[in-house]
Design brief:
23 helices; six-stranded mixed β-sheet; 8 strands
Amino acid sequence: MINKNLKYVLILLVLSYVCFMLGNSMVSLTNPDEVFYTQTAKEMAKYNTWMTPYLFDAPQFEKPIFLYWFLRASLIIFPNPNFAARFSTALFGMIGVIAVYYLALLGFKNEKKAFVSALVLMSCGLYIGLARTVFTDMIFTVLILISLLFFYWGYTCQGRKGPGILLFFVFAGLAVLAKGPLGFLIPFLTIAAFLIIKKDIRFLFCKYSLWGILAFIGVSFPWYALMIKKYGSTFTYEFFYNDHIRRLIEAEHISNDTWYFYPFSMIGCIFPWSLYTFVSLIFLFKYLKKGVNHFYIFLALWLGVTFLIFQPAHSKLVSYIFPLFPALAIITGDFIYNSSLPENKSRVFFVISLVMGAILFLMAIALFTQIPRNSTYLPSKTPAYLLFAILVFLTALFCFFIFRHKFLKASFVLVVLMCSLSLLMLFILKEVETYVSSKESSEYLLKNYTVSGPIVSSKPFARGVRYYTEKEIVVLDLPGKNYFSPHPVTFLYNDEKVKEYLRAQNQPVYCILKKANVEDIERVADKEFKFTVLNKIGNEYILRIEPNKKK
């Protein structure tokens, strides 16, 4: 069994490396989030601190410290900043795949079923996306996953109760350092509900829990205590109120604030397994009624607790419910494996697979028709046409295996499809890099002009321009308001503010703006100021503004 497990783990590691880490140096860090986190780590190095996150030369408390530690270390170790910045999330993505394999193995006692579950997680769209970008959500989710893995290990394996409980609290503490109090709330409420339903809540009333709580406090409290001592109400207001409580009562992204956002996102973002996941949830309810395996109760509570914590909040993002995706992957893997058994002859699996084949085919046709229409953004169409060819070929292969009732082989085709998509998207993103990153426009400005003052930037580009120029930034947003978590920058949010700022400058003002803001400047400048469009790179306009001497 050990040799078989090792074989599966090695396969998962190789595939995960391809899906999450290979080629991460190709594309420059993108706006607005990748540059936000990486610039924070750079400024921590500038101020020689491992404890206080900095942005725009001031402490910022939008996220806790855990990711920044990894970013600082990675930027020291790896010479390529793009690879270095993305290394942490890719590494945790790989760890999460292995953790799901071992959790499913504990729950089902079946290596193949655990392997399929890990493949589902590894190849779902949201998981690949978050593993290849700089966000806290991947690290946060994997730490919660590991904490639940150790709890279940301690609960189900004789003689492992002590280390299982202790490690549960340790990794929950690390999750709190990764994103905040929910790092404890999600796993603790899950195991508490599980033990209450199992009528075994006394499992936690032992000396190991006491040591675990002490370990949790030792891991998670010191950084928060240091920030409160050093920054007082500035920290507590920004971190606890603005970034947690306020998100419950106020929508940062108003269009997402609907009852159906999370249910639809949950199913849609686990693509290409969406249909299988939807059906697996129905089967999960059947298993719960039959009481087949208490592992299903554990997974159902994990899903339910996470969903119920985030659903009432008005600020909604797909990444917020990411902590439930490991559980989704496991129940989906369970359904796929069970359907592949010869004695089952699952018609449901056959039908939804045919629908999936049709969806893939329609995606290929849509891609083919859109490539010429987006030629402006794709100087080289080769990667897109190659993606089309691979999509057609793998769709045909997928359907071939489905008609031959080789369901596991058909599922593996979807895994190969997502691995291929992960790599090809890098080449496509490289083609459109100027539309997602401020690197080229920033480098052009610094190389060709003497910029001695602040750079005026449109709100979506501000973090990127700061990262690539290291200059002071003035943000222009007409009419607008500061970021949800306000940045310590000069903010020009109406015409008078713009004129007042321009009049105060005794040198040319350089800008990197979106098209709408260029039109704003043209209107505001009138005859008082002269503005010149120096270049347009992607969707970013590089301007120079100076007093109109002919006035």
